[in-house]
Design a protein that fits this description.
It is built from 11 helices and 11 strands.
């Protein structure tokens, strides 16, 4: 059986010489791993301790601790030496001329106006007790359409509106996979995850539809929000959206609701706010307001009471729970807030436009 104490002393002498010769931090780190690492020389030397007699183990253990402490101390002093050498080289280097004019810094970036609007909307609803949720952008037909009470022959399922995904691109079978056409699937996922009321969620995100013109883009942003609990009424929906409109557009903003149809709500409504340009008068500078076309109102979002079928699809009892939902286009709200008349400028990456925000 080899003398482990002698082997440890030999290891310590080798470590002293190697550490003294180390010329940089990477070399010093390599020596630390070589001698003190889990697979280092010290660990290798101690693997034979199990075969020693009981009376020999304390002597070998004491020697091992002594060697480890010595090597750690040598490494620490070597790091201090290298740091002092580096500082000395810097001090002896070319002097810094503090009289030179300062160099202009690269302009700092900032958030895109659509991002700013999404965050502001989420913050407003967070103050009302809503949590922010997200979901996949490649969605299944059941979440995007069927669970939300879209019948199989609904126009939104047509290729002219929806980007369907080839199963081969997903690496396996995924029947009915598509790029989500709205953020409403998050409503289904959030309710299924919660299991029972109450649920209050706001869900911003990207959505996709086959459409592109001055006011439409094939990729755009929506914010879906919903509240499900016992005793929720249409009055709660109106109060919530009125509070949002005042927080987002200004304290004097008024709202109105017009009947409309959406498959996943009943009843449904389009929600308008008083025009932010003319103050709801329909007149601007003695002429008809171009933003609201003289009506005094701007359409901003759709809303309604969650359809009982939707509640049943997620396992909620529509006789015991009710709720409301609403959805809004972020680009639309950004255009209204900042007076932008063409949605396409959001995606042109033109710094002359983006630097205004």
């Amino acid at each position: 059986m080899p003398d482990l104490v002698a082997e440890l002393e030999s290891l310590a002498r080798a470590a002293r010489d190697a550490i003294a010769a180390a010329g940089d931090e990477p070399g010093l780190e390599a020596l630390r791993v070589r001698y003190l690492g889990k697979k280092g020389e010290l660990s290798a030397a101690l693997r034979g301790m199990g075969q020693l007699a009981a009376e020999e183990r304390p002597r070998v253990g004491e020697a091992a601790n002594r060697v480890r402490d010595e090597v750690e101390a040598l490494l620490a002093r070597a790091r201090e030496r290298l740091e002092a050498d580096r500082l000395e080289r810097e001090l002896r280097g070319p002097p810094l001329d503090v009289t030179l004019p300062g160099r202009g810094l690269v302009a700092r970036g900032h958030r895109h106006p659509v991002t700013r609007t999404s965050e502001e909307i989420a913050q407003i609803f967070a103050r009302l007790g809503y949590r922010v949720a997200s979901g996949p952008e490649i969605e299944l037909d059941w979440y995007n359409f069927e669970a939300l009470n879209f019948p199989p022959d609904h126009p939104a399922r047509d290729m002219q509106d929806t980007f369907f995904v080839d199963e081969a691109t997903l690496g396996g079978p995924a029947p009915g996979a598509l790029l989500r056409t709205h953020t409403s699937p998050i409503q289904i996922r959030a309710m299924k995850e919660a299991g029972r009321p109450p649920v209050r969620v706001v869900a911003p995100g990207r959505v996709y539809r086959s459409d592109f013109d001055q006011t439409h883009s094939p990729m755009f942003h929506q914010v879906e929000g919903f509240c499900v609990d016992r005793g929720i009424t249409f009055a709660d929906l109106k109060g919530t959206l009125a509070a949002f409109a005042r927080a987002f557009f200004g304290p004097g903003t008024r709202t109105r609701f017009r009947p409309s149809y959406f498959p996943f709500v009943e009843p449904g409504a389009e929600v308008d706010v008083s025009c932010t340009i003319c103050g709801g008068t329909g007149r601007k500078d003695s002429s008809r307001c171009g933003a609201c076309k003289g009506t005094g109102w701007l359409e901003v979002l759709g809303a309604g009471m969650v359809h009982p079928v939707v509640l049943e699809n997620v396992g909620f009892d529509p006789r015991a729970a009710t709720g409301f939902a609403f959805g809004m286009g972020v680009e639309r709200l950004t255009m209204l807030k900042y007076g932008i008349d063409d949605l396409r400028v959001f995606f042109d990456n033109d710094l002359r436009f983006l630097q205004q925000f």
